[in-house]
Structures are given as structure tokens and as C-alpha cells.
Amino acid sequence: MEQTLHVEAKDILKYAENFDQKIEEDKKIEPNEWMPEAYRKHLIRQMSQHAHSEVIGMQPEGNWLTRAPSLRAKQILLAKIQDEGGHGLYLYSACETLGISRDELIEQLHLGKAKYSSIFNYPTLNWADIGAIGWLVDGAAIVNQVSLQRTSYGPYSRAMVRICKEESFHQRQGYEIMATMMKGTKDQQEMAQDAMNRWWWPSLMMFGPHDSASPHSGDAFKWKIKRQSNDELRQKFIDKTIQQAEVIGLTVPDKDLKFNSETGHYEIGPINWDEFYSVINGNGFCNKKRLDHHKNAHEEGRWVRAAAEAYKNKHSKN
Ligand code: BYC
Hints:
This protein is mainly α. It is about 70% helix and about 0% strand. It is built from 14 helices and two strands, in the order αααααααααααββααα. It has helices spanning about 1-5, 10-25, 35-55, 60, 70-95, 100-110, 125-150, 155-180, 185-205, 215-220, 230-250, 275-285, 285-300, 300-315; strands spanning about 260, 265. It has a two-stranded antiparallel ribbon with strand order 1-2. A hairpin with a 4-residue loop joins strand 1 (about 260) and strand 2. Helix 5 (about 70-95) packs antiparallel against helix 8, helix 7 packs antiparallel against helix 8 and helix 7 (about 125-150) runs parallel beside helix 9. The radius of gyration is 21 Å and the shape is globular. It binds benzoyl coenzyme A (BYC). Benzoyl coenzyme A (BYC) binds next to helix 3, helix 7 and helix 10.
């Protein structure tokens, strides 16, 4: 961080103690304060992955904008996709407070150095998939993001507060689509169940590897970037979502699923981690398509950025 460069070596210890104390006391770390380099890098990694996920996540839903079944459905979907773009922008701005530029962040995405959520590498084959994304994908994102509202970095935490308000509307629009289809014809019910079958397991993978296989969790807990573990959050999502599925008559595609009355939690079968690692390493159904689309859109928008820069320069001279 810029400020780190001006800190004298003898003062580092004092700054580090102050940082540790703020973390200990649950106080937020703000951009103009000293922070360990590894904390800054950890946040850039996670926050940029989060921002990229919001923006890449517009693509699978955008695929159905022109085919929404009613004007009402189209308006709602359009508003939701615009919200996702807005979330990406808050998060890029929050990430830039850590001393990295938007151009560098986008370059990392394009070079495959920065990830985005595995879930957006699955295709949206029919309208029920839009319901499943809103209900399951946004539902999983909310569980994770509510927890991140208490993260230690101020700009990230505040972005989460705002984003969560919009996500709960997204989750409800998805649930409404699924509930409506489940009240419809046999074909519509089958479409909804098919979407549930395809999106259930990838949604559980959104929470990341099991805690025992999560390399970043140690530092994330030490610095209170993460407040709840990958497995804790996944379990929270499972417990609430299975009940919602039952209400509208959907079956969870897991033959090993059982409710443990002693713990009060549902227990699931094994997650296919080979599939997860294959997807995050670039070999999912849509990885290439998603990235190519982003690169093309970025290239096509070059003139807009140049025009904005020219406008800024012109006005800064006056
Ligand atoms: N996908 O040590 P771990 C939305 C990577 S968008 C891809 O547990 P960490 C929406 C991880 O990055 C909301 N990669 O990591 C938008 C790491 O690799 P690197 C998106 C994953 O960071 C539009 C490695 O696996 N939400 O809602 O402690 C339309 C080891 O993992 C994934 C966020 O981005 C994954 N699922 O914990 C609709 C939440 N999981 O970096 C909806 C913010 C793990 O070493 N992020 N990896 O190469 C987080 O909360 C945390 O980063 C995670 C992972 C829980 C995801």
C-alpha cells in the first residue's frame, strides 16, 4: 500500500500492534490505515474474485432476457441483472481502495490469474434455470454475504450491507418462478425439477472446499475476513433451502439426504470435488465462452473508456 512505503522500519512494529488490536476489538480496518501486505493481498484476491463473479454472473441470466415468458418477468430479470452489474462496480471500487487499479483487476481476470465463482460456468438451458439461479445461486450468495457484512475491511463490509438488501429480492424472484412452475402443467413441473437437479450440487460448491481443504481459511479467520467457515455456511444454506424445496414440492437430488434429529441439521451425500476443481481450473461447460464474451465486451467498450478519459482531461484543464 502507498502508505506502507512511507512507514519507517522502526515504526512497523507499532503499526502492526495497532492493526492486531483493531482486529481483536472487532474494529474495521480502513483504506488509509497501515495493514500487513499479506492482508491487503488476501483481500484483493477475494474481493476481485467476488467482483468478477457479479459481472460474469450477468451472462447466464442475460441469455434469457429476450425469451422471458412475460413483460413482468422480463422487467424483473432486467432489474436483477442491472443490480448484479452494480454489485460488481461497488466491489471493484472497494477493491481499488487497496491500491490496485481496475485495469489491473480486469487484466488478471483475462489472463486467468483471478477466478470468478464456479457456478457461472454452467449453462442456462431453459426458463426454469433462471428460477433456480435466483433461488439457489442468489440464496447461497446471501448466506455467504450476510456473514461477510461483519468482515474486518471497512469498504468490503459496507458494500456487503448494501448488496445483501438487493440479493434478498433476487432470491425471492427466483423462488417465485420455481413456485409458479410447480403449480403449472406437468411439463412445467418437470422443467423446474430438472433445473433443481442440475443446479443443486453446483450451488453447494459455491461455498468452496471443505474447511479441511481450504488453504485460505487460516489467514481469513486470523484477520476476521471470514467470520464463518465454508462448511458452516454451506450447512446453513442446506438447512433452509431443503425446507423451501419441500414447500413447493421439489425433490432434492441426493439419495443420501437425511435429517439428523439430534443435531437438527440435514446430512448430505458426498460432493463431487473433482467436478469443482475441474470447473475452477477452467474446464467447466462455459468457462471459455464466459471469458471470451467478457474480453470481447471489454474490447468493444474501449472507445467509451477513451471518450470518458478525453472528457475528464478536457475538463480538468478548465
Ligand atoms: N468458485 O481456501 P478457499 C452472485 C477457490 S456472485 C471459484 O476456501 P477462500 C451472483 C478460491 O478462490 C457472488 N473458486 O478460499 C451474481 C481459492 O483459489 P485461489 C459471489 C473458488 O477465499 C450474478 C481456492 O478455491 N460470491 O451472487 O477462503 C448473478 C481455495 O478455496 C470457489 C463471492 O465471491 C468457487 N465457488 O473461500 C447471480 C463470495 N470456492 O484464490 C448471483 C466471496 C473456492 O487461491 N468469496 N474457490 O486461486 C468468499 O466468500 C470466499 O472467497 C469463498 C472461498 C468462500 C468463495
